[in-house]
Amino acid sequence: MIDTPDGLVWLTQQEYGWYIAAYLFFSGLAGGAYLTGFAADVLGFVSEDVSTSRSMHSITQWGSVLALGGVGAGMIFLLVFHLGAPIRALLFPILFVNFGSWLVIGTWIIVLFTMAAIIQAFWIFWGEEAAGRSAFPRAITGQLERRFDVPVDTWLVRIATWTHPGPRRRLVLSGLGSALALGMIAYTGLKLGDVSATVPLWDGTLLPFLFLASALSIGLAATIGVTVLFEGLDGMNVTAFSVADDAVILGEIVVLALLLATLASGGPGAVAAFELLTGEYGLAFWGGVITVGLVLPLALSVSLIAVERRVDVHTSDQLYRLVRGIYTLKFGLVVLGGVALRYLIIAAAYNAPLSL
Fold it and tell me: Which of 84, 128, 152, 188 is 20 to 30 A from 348, comparing alpha carbons?
């Protein structure tokens, strides 16, 4: 319990712990990575340059890996740590029928998104040419086949080739998966927003937009960052993706500023949440979210653009490695900022006052 200057006694929410913050992060990462992969997929499809198409395909592959990894990790934190009954989750088609609840709606969105992501990854890795380090799922099945003389990879290729709808239709289906990804990102903010009357920090209007902007940013940063780390800069249009991430970060800053202004000018509970967020949790907020997640990435991006306009980074191996490292750092900072934001959204929340 926390006493505030207004004389009210506020009870900090105990229902959601750090594992929910982890779930929020990984589900946002999964949705953002899938959308980034879809964008690269479209760019590769419309490009007439073979090398560009191949590079975009590598980004799409990394987006698929991160989307599946993110949604898998998120389900572990949600079902195992939070609910503690992962087996019962298998009964969701029977138990989750109240479609007026965001919990039920969100569960169906997550399940459908996971199915779409799995099917897309199956076609991308085994139904099409898979090259580069992002193709390690295909490399694993190939290694298993060679080592144990079991035609795992051969059968997967045959099934994927037989079921593959063709590049154009696959892109349409991937677009439907992207809509589900957007729904998965937004629903968490809408679900938390249902109790905004008693938890002022979980503003039902602004929180979904904040989650959406942050998820797009961290998903893009993680996907392109991993691509740069393992594949390099050549042909990846890293600068364009980085600038796109900067635009999303600026949008996130606007939404975050509006949320802070709403809290600071709201009722006693909102003001208490604002003071806790910027005071007691000030190091995590100003240092983690603002500085690490927003300001430093933008500053690094401006520096990188200035360098790339002046010189060709490919003229020097040392300069190439430096720029590659700075891009990786920039994208890594964005992801860390996303972790800090979700931690604070849970940690700095209040429930209704115990006394009036």
Answer: 84
Nearest CA-CA partner of 342 in 12, 102, 22: 22
Kindly state which CATH superfamily the domain 2-353 is placed in: Formate dehydrogenase/DMSO reductase domain (1.20.1630.10)
The conformation of residue 87, written as its DSSP 8-state character, comes to T
Token pair for 228? 């740069």
Eight-state DSSP code of residue 165: -
Could you give the CA distance from residue 195 to residue 199 in angstroms, rounded to a whole number?
6
Q: How far apart are CA 52 and CA 267, in angstroms?
A: 53
**What's this model's pTM, rounded to 2 decimal places?**
0.90
Tokens 């190939």 -> residue: 142
Contact 21, 343 (CB under 8 A): yes
Instruction: Kindly give the pairing relationship between strand 9-12 and strand 350-353.
Output: antiparallel
Whether the CB-CB separation of 124 and 44 falls below 8 Å is answered with no
Compute CA distances 47 → 151, 170, 202, whole Å. Answer: 35, 17, 42
User: For every one of its 356 residues, what pLDDT tens digit does the chain have, with 9 covering 90 and above?
Assistant: 444 545 555 555 555 667 888 989 999 999 999 999 999 999 999 988 888 888 999 999 999 999 999 999 988 887 665 455 555 555 555 555 555 666 677 778 888 999 999 999 999 999 988 777 888 998 899 999 999 888 999 999 999 999 999 999 999 999 999 999 999 998 888 878 777 777 888 888 899 999 999 999 999 999 999 999 999 888 778 999 999 999 999 999 999 999 999 999 988 878 888 888 898 899 999 999 999 999 999 999 999 999 988 888 878 899 999 999 999 999 999 999 999 999 999 888 765 444 34
* CA dihedral over 253, 324, 283, 350, signed as positive or negative: positive
Interatomic CA distance for residues 236 and 238, integer angstroms: 5
Residues 6+ apart with CB under 8 A from 137: 65, 121, 125
Domain borders along the chain are 2-353
The alpha helices in the chain, defined as continuous H runs, are: 18-46, 50-75, 92-95, 102-126, 136-148, 152-163, 167-193, 207-231, 238-264, 268-275, 282, 296-310, 317-347
